[in-house]
Design goal:
Pfam family, one: Glyco_hydro_1
CATH architecture: Alpha-Beta Barrel
Shape: globular
Protein name: Glycoside hydrolase family 1
InterPro entries: GH, Glyco_hydro_1, Glycosyl_Hydrolase_39
Number of domains: 1
CATH class: Alpha Beta
GO molecular function: hydrolase activity, hydrolyzing O-glycosyl compounds
Structural class: alpha/beta
Strand content: 15-25%
Mean pLDDT: 93
Number of strands: 17
Largest sheet: 8 strands, parallel, barrel
Keywords: Hydrolase
């Protein structure tokens, strides 16, 4: 049983489309992972990283309803199992197959849930999942900013994308739990904050600071405030759709709240509602506490990075700052269970948020695209070595029951799965009881 703090990295697998769907930005292809996946897994062992955010490419794996090409997933996940590496499986990262279209498609949630169930059946040793990565950011960039996928810019398009993304995530959790009842879900979501630049900007900043919580409010079955309720209803969400989320609140007991934080996550808001980058003002510590106070769930720092600049130490300094914030969060009583530098290698075209296909490396990896270690990689390796045996002894009384891939068939694991399966059956029955009267209950 893996009962220690989770030091993680990830293989960047974003797959949004741009140019009105004509161009697919496949980060695993552009960063060379399809060719060098064995080398990439070797690098994990060099770092002594035992937890990997990773997932098969959705657009080439999910070929149609009930049709899958598992060829790449089979070889890579077989190797992860052999190496006893714990994957946090990222099933949908900013894009869908061409045949689904985009996140405006109302069929997407059910289609994705069937895909998640099929994956869980094929790889029953997998326990940790991020069914859909950064639901808020995906809806924002695709349907509010007009950058990716449907490339729309309206509140209605944003609400439509958001409700479909979150419903897909919720249904996927339910289907996966039927296969693996001790599954844990790490909701990797961007942690944002909006600062009012002047008094006239207070109101738009307040609205944005309420909107940032919508994906997790819906995902965890938390009632939204009255202003956000009106926003959702005006954006086309029905009362029945809203109650769907409220009636799934028991799923939160299987969740770890993943908070992603970058230097771009804080914003200055002007009086007209436009925004500009604010830089690192509050920092991960303060913003994560805001999210924890709202949801009271265990936390994992699931993404951060910074581009290596001319000095060569910029990313190293950012790593140490983030790690100091993790320790501060932990020492103030927030149960934080892991930290992630994202990603293992450099990425491509993230300097323009994948809006253009320039094929320009973004130097944020622990290794460059030739698989040479960067200074931040050496720093992370030392950080893991220094802290990996210290944190468990100073635990804030939370233990995450993560099962190693090669332990999944042990008797005590099987017994625990059966116990959780019975508990989950009871949870579902309790959630379903009020559904018949939901239409008659006023918010």
């Amino acid at each position: 049983m893996f009962r220690t703090f989770m030091f993680a990295t990830g293989i960047e697998n974003s797959i949004p489309t741009i140019n009105n769907g004509r161009t697919r930005i496949d980060q695993m292809e552009k960063c060379g992972h399809y060719r060098y996946w064995q080398t990439d897994f070797d690098l994990l062992e060099d770092l002594d990283v035992q937890v990997l955010r990773y997932g098969p490419p959705l657009h080439t794996t999910f070929l149609g309803p009930g049709h899958y090409d598992w060829s790449f997933a089979d070889v890579t996940f077989c190797e992860l199992e052999r190496r006893n590496i714990i994957p946090i499986v990222d099933l949908c990262h900013f894009g869908v197959p061409d045949w689904i279209g985009n996140f405006q498609n109302p069929d997407f949630p059910e289609l994705f849930a069937t895909y998640a169930a099929a994956f869980a059946h094929r790889f029953p040793w997998v326990q940790l999942y991020t069914p859909i990565n950064e639901m808020f950011i995906c809806a924002q960039f695709s349907a509010a900013y007009g950058w990716w996928n449907e490339q729309m810019r309206s509140d209605r398009a944003f609400v439509t994308a958001l409700k479909h993304l979150v419903k897909a995530n919720v249904l996927a959790m339910e289907r996966i739990l039927k296969v693996r009842p001790d599954s844990l879900f790490v909701q990797s979501e961007s942690s944002e904050y909006f600062h009012a630049e002047n008094p006239k900007a207070i109101k738009p900043a307040e609205i944005m600071n309420a909107r940032r919580f919508l994906s997790l409010d819906l995902n965890y079955g938390r009632r939204v405030d009255s202003e956000m309720y009106e926003f959702l209803m005006d954006g086309g969400m029905t009362r029945e759709e809203y109650h769907f989320f409220l009636n799934r609140s028991s799923l939160r007991h299987h969740c770890i709240m993943g908070n992603d934080y970058y230097v771009t996550n804080e914003h200055r808001v002007r009086a007209d509602g436009s925004t500009a980058a604010a830089g690192d003002v509050f920092g991960y510590d303060e913003i994560t506490r805001q999210y924890y106070d709202r949801y009271k769930l265990p936390v994992m720092h699931t993404e951060t990075n910074l581009m290596e600049g001319p000095k060569g130490e910029e990313a190293v300094d950012w790593l140490w700052k983030q790690w100091a914030n993790v320790l501060l969060v932990r020492n103030t009583g927030v149960p934080i269970v892991g930290f992630t530098w994202y990603s293992l290698t450099d990425q491509m075209d993230w300097d323009v948020a994948l809006r253009e296909e320039n094929n320009r490396p973004t130097p944020v990896g622990l290794y460059d695209l030739d698989r040479n270690i960067r200074p931040v990689g050496r720093c992370y390796k030392h950080l893991i070595k220094d802290w990996c045996h210290v944190l468990p002894a100073q635990s804030v009384c939370l233990t995450v029951p993560v099962v190693r891939p090669q332990e999944v068939r042990e008797a005590h694991v099987v017994r625990n799965q059966e116990r959780l399966r019975r508990m989950r059956h009871t949870e579902v029955r309790e959630d379903e009881e009020p559904v018949a009267t939901a239409k008659n209950v006023r918010r």
